[in-house]
Amino acid sequence: MAKEAGMRGAGVDGEAEPISDTARRALERDLAKLRAERQKVAATLGDADEAGDSADQADELQRADDLTALDDRIAELETRLRQSALAGPPRTDVVGVGSTATVRFGDDSTQAIQIGEVAEELDETLVTADSPLGRALLGHRVGETVAYATPRGQDTATVLTIGG
């Protein structure tokens, strides 16, 4: 079970950062769903010359706004996927975005976790880079111990392994 989860945008410092294969597949799935939804919304938009009552016009404006929001989100995901391709694979010498690290927590439990940008609700192995645990682990190497805040107080995690 992940110790921390949440949502965040691209790259911790705005730079192109690598993502794991799992995260890439999730972004690609989201992109495909958004494109399908965009097609459905676009198909409902009528001819601009059609006359209708104000309710019809308001509904048409709402669908146009929905289409714009979908276009913005699609562009955001496409940009993130391009950036991650430029960034290359996750590093294996220090913990970074896209890394998979095995850590030992203060209670002696161990867990393999991925440092990512967006944690899906059901993905218990993904820790976001802007969560307390994610921020604490970034930039650390095998053998190093970090402290971080939890809802129950301070905890520690020791990096045992780092993979891409």
From TrEMBL:
Gene3D superfamilies: Transcription elongation factor, GreA/GreB, C-terminal domain, Transcription elongation factor, GreA/GreB, N-terminal domain. Residues 92-162 form the Transcription elongation factor GreA/GreB C-terminal domain. Residues 47-59 have a biased composition (Acidic residues). The lineage of its organism: Bacteria, Bacillati, Actinomycetota, Actinomycetes, Kitasatosporales. PANTHER family: TRANSCRIPTION ELONGATION FACTOR GREA. Keywords: Elongation factor, Protein biosynthesis, Transcription, Transcription regulation. InterPro entries: GreA/GreB_C_sf, Tscrpt_elong_fac_GreA/B_C, Tscrpt_elong_fac_GreA/B_fam, Tscrpt_elong_fac_GreA/B_N, Tscrpt_elong_fac_GreA/B_N_sf. Pfam families: GreA_GreB (PF01272), GreA_GreB_N (PF03449). This is GreA/GreB family elongation factor. SUPFAM superfamilies: FKBP-like (SSF54534), GreA transcript cleavage protein, N-terminal domain (SSF46557). It comes from the Bacteria.
